[in-house]
Design a protein that fits this description.
Shape of chain A: globular
Number of helices of chain A: 0
Radius of gyration of chain B: 14 Å
Helix content of chain B: under 10%
Largest sheet of chain A: 7 strands, mixed
Distance between the termini of chain B: 41 Å
Structural class of chain A: mainly beta
Oligomer: heterodimer
Chain lengths: ~120, ~120
C-alpha cells in the first residue's frame, strides 16, 4: 500500500458530462501529481501541485482542471467528457517540491469509462 | 525532448527462467534519473528503483538487478529465477533537470510468468 488514496476506483459516465476525481496524498507529502494512462497515449503527466500551488503542467486538456486544497488533498475535474477521455487516472505524491530525483508514490487509480 | 523506449511489448517465460527487460532513453540533460515501476494486475504503480545519471554501478536487490550503461543510454532490468508473482507490466521512466517532476514513461513491457 503506497499510502495514496484515490476515489472512486471506477467511474462510468456519458459523453458531455463532468466528473471529479479525488486524491489524498501520503501523510506528510506536499506534492500531488496527476497522470493519465490510456491505451493509445500510455502514461502521461497532466499536472503537479505543491502545497496548494500549481507547480508544473503537462499535456492537460483545457477541459480538465485540478486543484489542491489546504488539507493537501487534490481533485481533478474533467468536463465535457469525450469517449477518448476514457482512461486510468493516477494520482501520485512526493515529499518534495518536484525535483528531478523525487520518488513518486502512486495510488491505485480511477478507471474512467465514458460511454 | 526526452523519450523512453521499451521495445519489448510482451514477454512470456516459464517460472525460474531469467528475463531481461530493455529500456533505452533519450535526453539532452546531463543530470537525470531513471526509474522502474511495476504495475501488477491490481493496477497500482509500484516503485522499484531509482538511479541517477552519475552512478553507473549496477544494482542488485534480491532477484532483481539493474544494468545502467550511459554509453548505450540503456537501463535494463533483469529478474532472476522468475516467479508467477512477477507477472505484471513494467515501466521504465526518466526524469531530468529540464522537466523535473514530469516523469516520462516508456510504453511498458508486459511480463507473463507461467508454471
Amino acid at each position: 500500500d503506497s499510502g495514496v488514496t484515490q476515489t472512486p476506483k471506477h467511474l462510468i459516465t456519458a459523453t458531455g458530462q463532468r466528473v471529479t476525481l479525488r486524491c489524498s496524498p501520503r501523510s506528510g507529502d506536499l506534492s500531488v501529481y496527476w497522470y493519465q494512462q490510456s491505451l493509445d497515449q500510455g502514461l502521461q503527466f497532466l499536472i503537479q501541485y505543491y502545497n496548494g500551488e500549481e507547480r508544473a503542467k503537462g499535456n492537460i486538456l483545457e477541459r480538465f482542471s485540478a486543484q489542491q486544497f489546504p488539507d493537501l488533498h487534490s481533485e481533478l475535474n474533467l468536463s465535457s467528457l469525450e469517449l477518448g477521455d476514457s482512461a486510468l487516472y493516477f494520482c501520485a505524491s512526493s515529499n518534495g517540491v518536484g525535483t528531478v530525483n523525487e520518488k513518486l508514490f502512486f495510488g491505485s487509480g480511477t478507471q474512467l469509462s465514458v460511454l | 525532448a526526452q523519450k523512453v523506449t521499451q521495445a519489448q511489448t510482451e514477454i512470456s517465460v516459464v517460472e525460474k527462467e531469467d528475463v531481461t527487460l530493455d529500456c533505452v532513453y533519450e535526453t539532452r540533460d546531463t543530470t537525470y534519473y531513471l526509474f522502474w515501476y511495476k504495475q501488477p494486475p491490481s493496477g497500482e504503480l509500484v516503485f522499484l528503483i531509482r538511479r541517477n545519471s552519475f552512478d553507473e554501478q549496477n544494482e542488485i536487490s534480491g532477484r532483481y538487478s539493474w544494468n545502467f550503461q550511459k554509453s548505450t543510454s540503456s537501463f535494463n532490468f533483469t529478474i532472476t529465477a522468475s516467479q508467477v508473482v512477477d507477472s505484471a507490466v513494467y515501466f521504465c521512466a526518466l526524469s531530468s533537470t529540464g522537466t523535473a517532476s514530469k516523469l516520462t514513461f516508456g510504453t511498458g513491457t508486459r511480463l507473463q510468468v507461467t508454471l
